Inverse folding.
């Protein structure tokens, strides 16, 4: 066995030097031991270690191994992606090891106490990569006390692991140490006083641990220390005056601890200091004037303490300062004019103190200043015109002071300014006009002043502006027209409490984002809201009755969120002023409100919720109703024939509910005159198809040549949409929905014959009577439906032949007659050769099944149509019918998209709610996500079931 004590080492070294050329290979023991350790790595195929083989020369060929006198002297495998532990490291077999660097790997588990056997070690590095987390050692357990044996150790790096427990006092024996870095672990306990014996130490990093107790006075003995970082711990007690002995200290960081007491005057003796950070502690007393000696200081951060008294004039001597932060203390007195000598300053934060007096004109000398924050003090006087010299300034925050007089127009010279906060002062005057020159502005917050005059249209040139808050001033005149153009970039426009004239719509447009939370509740406070469009988000929680207080509300669109609970009864009252109530695709439950009033409601969409009970008869008061969609709920009622009296009703969808019973008319003359879409599919309606209903439906009997959608106000903000199911696809139809005429009675329990008057509904584009119990012949009159594109009579008990008149249905793209008892010949010609067997299967008596399909010229036509309209279109949906829908849906979304990208929030009365501010902040982070989501939404179809 080769056991070598440190005392015999130097003589042995001489001895082996003598044999330098005869002993060319490392000892077999070292080689074997390292191979054994390598065998425990979890990633054996690591190519860097391919050189580690028994047959190769470990001193010459092995990666990371350097020998001296034929013995392993250095093992440096930093950043080699090794996954392993130190459990089998050959500590006993490497007596000559001086340098051990295993940093930036994936070593885990504890540091074995045997490490104390590496008594010649000079450098021990088990740290992780500080820059990135790509390679991360996660050694845990405590630091073994046996480290105290490593008498020669000069550098000890264990940073960024999971080491816990306290720092062993034995480290104090390692008198050769020059660097200790134990930062970013979870070490606790106090800092051992024995560190004070390590008089060669130049660097001591213990930051980012859980160390508690006081800073030992003994640290003050470490006269060669240049860099001392004890920040981000829970150290308490006061800062020892002995630190004033550390003449060579350049960096002193004690920030983010629980230190109390005053800043020792002696800190002012540390003339080499360049970086002094004592922020976020509980330091009190005043700032020692001695700090004015620290000529080389570039960063001085004393913020977030309890410091009081004046800012010493001597701070003005610190001419190297680039960063001065004294904010969040209780400093008083005035801002010393000497600060005007700090000509290298780029950041000056004095905010959150009790400073009074004027802003010194001398601040205007600080030409490199980028960030000036003096807010939340008691500063008075006027804003010095000299601030206009700060040509590098990007942030100017002077809000919450007692500043008076006019804003100097020189401010408009600050062409790099992005943030201008002047709110809550007593500023007056009309000098806002030149603000349009500060083209970089993003946030302008000047609320709560006495600014007067009119808004200048040049403000509209500020194309980067996101927030413009001029609320609570004395602005007058009209809001320039061009303000509307700013809605593309503006997120907040707040001009409440002014004397502005003219009108502005009050709009909350936040749709298609990833907003979440339950904060809809306080929305009821923004009483001027007219349009609330927050569809396509993740909003949750229940609807609050206070929303009913929004008596100016015209559009309430909360569709496609996760709202739950009952719809408050008072929502019925809103039909007096609401035009649109859209809460489709949520989780709303309970019954519908029963008290709908006469008024403006034109669009009522609760599709896709869990509503139960009956359809409230009071809806008959809503004479303006055009779109009525209660589909996909659990409603349990008979057919609401009384809806027929709504003179403007165009779209009625009640599909997928538990509606039941026969459909009978009241004998009224004119019902459902304007109806163009009627979908009552997937219910439990019984008896005959409603003859008496079908004989009305006036709009379905005439072909509207103009094909124009009625103009709808607010269409810029809200588009009616309805889901149409055809050929297994559920399409969301937007904008064109007034152009399509459809009837869907499928999946009910209808019986009897198909009434031949159905042939009078010549405007129909889609007719679906499938999955019922219909009997008898197909009426030949259906051959008059020349516009019909999709006709589905499948899964009934129909008999007889397919009427020869069907051959004239030249628009037909989808035909399904399957699963009936039809017989005779399948008509030939025109569209018929494009239908395949699926259109007819399940009819025993039919003859002449098509064998060829999709090979004619018309097949090619529809193919080219498809490429024109959208390559994303599913190959199954290759009919022109679907193409039309697709085209139109894309148009609808196309226009919605531009608007969707802007978030407009205009508020004229009442306070700014906190929830909105929060939403806006969240929005900034989410906007990119939102855009991606929107692009996906363009694929406005999805498979149903
Ligand atoms: C190990 O090697 C890396 C370069 O590969 C070097 O930066 C580092 O200083 C070396 N470690 C020791 C202890 O010499
Ligand atoms: C530090 O040094 C002093 C005197 O040299 C000695 O009394 C003390 O025990 C030492 N402490 C440690 C932990 O090394
Ligand atoms: C500080 O460093 C200088 C050299 O830069 C050296 O001469 C001086 O002795 C050091 N001070 C102390 C207290 O060690
Ligand atoms: C201050 O910095 C200058 C330039 O870097 C250097 O020459 C000087 O020694 C420093 N002063 C002190 C007291 O460290
Ligand atoms: C600021 O500089 C001027 C001119 O160099 C000098 O007169 C004044 O004393 C300086 N003040 C401070 C506090 O440094």
């Amino acid at each position: 066995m080769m056991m070598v004590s440190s005392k015999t080492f130097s003589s042995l070294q001489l001895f082996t030097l003598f044999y330098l050329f005869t002993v060319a290979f490392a000892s077999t023991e070292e080689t074997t031991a390292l191979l054994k350790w390598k065998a425990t790595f979890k990633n054996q195929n690591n190519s860097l270690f391919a050189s580690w083989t028994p047959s190769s020369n470990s001193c010459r060929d092995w990666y990371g191994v350097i020998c001296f006198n034929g013995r392993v002297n250095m093992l440096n495998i930093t950043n080699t992606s090794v996954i392993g532990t130190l459990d089998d490291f050959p500590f006993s077999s490497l007596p000559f090891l001086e340098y051990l660097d295993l940093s930036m790997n994936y070593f885990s588990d504890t540091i074995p106490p045997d490490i104390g056997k590496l008594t010649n070690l000079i450098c021990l590095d088990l740290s992780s990569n500080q820059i990135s987390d790509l390679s991360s050692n996660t050694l845990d357990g405590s630091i073994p006390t046996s480290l105290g044996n490593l008498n020669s150790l000069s550098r000890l790096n264990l940073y960024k692991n999971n080491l816990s427990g306290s720092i062993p006092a034995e480290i104090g024996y390692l008198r050769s140490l020059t660097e200790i870095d134990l930062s970013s672990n979870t070490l606790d306990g106090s800092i051992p006083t024995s560190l004070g014996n390590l008089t060669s130490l130049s660097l001591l990093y213990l930051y980012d641990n859980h160390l508690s107790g006081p800073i030992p006075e003994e640290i003050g003995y470490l006269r060669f220390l240049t860099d001392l970082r004890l920040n981000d711990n829970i150290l308490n007690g006061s800062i020892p005056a002995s630190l004033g002995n550390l003449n060579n200290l350049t960096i002193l960081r004690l920030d983010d601890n629980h230190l109390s007491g005053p800043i020792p005057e002696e800190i002012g003796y540390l003339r080499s200091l360049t970086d002094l950070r004592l922020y976020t502690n509980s330091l009190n007393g005043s700032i020692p004037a001695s700090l004015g000696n620290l000529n080389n200081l570039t960063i001085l951060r004393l913020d977030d303490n309890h410091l009081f008294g004046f800012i010493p004039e001597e701070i003005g001597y610190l001419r190297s300062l680039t960063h001065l932060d004294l904010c969040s203390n209780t400093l008083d007195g005035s801002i010393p004019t000497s600060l005007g000598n700090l000509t290298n300053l780029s950041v000056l934060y004095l905010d959150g103190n009790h400073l009074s007096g004027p802003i010194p004109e001398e601040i205007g000398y600080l030409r490199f200043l980028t960030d000036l924050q003096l807010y939340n003090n008691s500063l008075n006087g006027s804003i010095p015109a000299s601030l206009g010299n700060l040509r590098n300034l990007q942030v100017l925050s002077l809000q919450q002071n007692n500043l008076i007089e006019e804003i100097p127009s020189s401010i408009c010279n600050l062409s790099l300014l992005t943030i201008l906060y002047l709110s809550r002062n007593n500023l007056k005057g009309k000098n806002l006009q030149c603000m349009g020159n500060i083209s970089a502005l993003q946030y302008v917050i000047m609320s709560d002043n006495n600014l007067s005059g009119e808004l200048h249209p040049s403000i509209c040139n500020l194309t980067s502006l996101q927030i413009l808050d001029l609320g609570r001033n004395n602005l007058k005149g009209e809001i320039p027209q061009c303000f509307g153009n700013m809605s593309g970039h503006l997120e907040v426009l707040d001009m409440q409490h002014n004397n502005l004239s003219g009108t502005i719509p009050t709009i909350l447009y936040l749709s298609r984002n990833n907003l979440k939370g339950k904060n809809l509740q306080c929305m009821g406070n923004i009483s001027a809201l007219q349009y609330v469009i927050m569809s396509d988000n993740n909003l949750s929680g229940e609807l609050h009755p206070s929303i009913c207080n929004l008596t100016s509300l015209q559009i309430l669109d909360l569709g496609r969120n996760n709202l739950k609970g009952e719809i408050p009864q008072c929502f019925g009252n809103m039909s007096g002023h609401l035009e649109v109530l859209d809460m489709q695709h949520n989780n709303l439950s309970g019954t519908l409100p029963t008290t709908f009033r006469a008024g403006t409601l034109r669009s009522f969409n609760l599709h896709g919720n869990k509503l139960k009970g009956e359809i409230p008869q009071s809806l008959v008061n809503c004479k303006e109703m055009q779109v009525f969609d209660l589909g996909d709920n659990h409603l349990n009622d008979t057919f609401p024939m009384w809806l027929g009296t709504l003179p403007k009703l165009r779209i009625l969808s009640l599909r997928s509910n538990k509606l039941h019973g026969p459909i009978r008319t009241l004998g009224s003359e004119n019902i459902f005159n304007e109806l163009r879409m009627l979908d009552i599919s997937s219910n439990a309606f019984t008896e005959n198809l409603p003859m008496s209903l079908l004989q009305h439906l006036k709009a379905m009997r005439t072909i509207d040549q103009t094909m124009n959608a009625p103009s709808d106000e607010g269409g810029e903000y809200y588009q009616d949409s309805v889901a149409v199911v055809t050929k297994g696809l559920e399409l969301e139809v937007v904008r064109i929905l007034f152009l399509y005429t459809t009837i869907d009675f499928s999946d009910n329990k209808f019986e009897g014959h198909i009434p031949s008057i159905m042939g009078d509904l010549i405007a129909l584009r889609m007719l679906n009577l499938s999955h019922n119990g219909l009997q008898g012949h197909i009426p030949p009159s259906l051959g008059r439906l020349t516009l019909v594109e999709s006709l589905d009579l499948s899964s009934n008990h129909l008999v007889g032949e397919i009427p020869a008149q069907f051959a004239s249905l030249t628009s037909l793209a989808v035909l399904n007659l399957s699963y009936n008892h039809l017989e005779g010949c399948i008509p030939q010609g025109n569209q018929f050769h494009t239908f395949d067997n699926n259109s007819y299967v399940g009819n025993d008596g039919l003859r002449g099944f098509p064998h060829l399909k999709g090979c004619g010229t018309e097949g090619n036509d529809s193919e080219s149509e498809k490429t024109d309209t959208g390559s994303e279109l599913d190959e199954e949906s290759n009919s022109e019918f679907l193409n039309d829908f697709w085209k139109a849906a894309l148009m609808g979304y196309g226009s919605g998209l531009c608007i969707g990208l802007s978030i407009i929030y205009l508020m004229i009365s009442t306070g700014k709610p906190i929830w909105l501010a929060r939403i806006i902040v969240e929005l900034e982070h989410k906007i990119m996500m939102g855009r991606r989501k929107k692009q996906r939404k363009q694929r406005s179809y999805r498979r149903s079931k």
The first helix runs from residue 6 to 18. The pocket of 2-acetamido-2-deoxy-beta-D-glucopyranose (ligand 5) is lined by residues 313, 316-317, 338, 341 (CB under 6 Å). The radius of gyration is 40 Å.
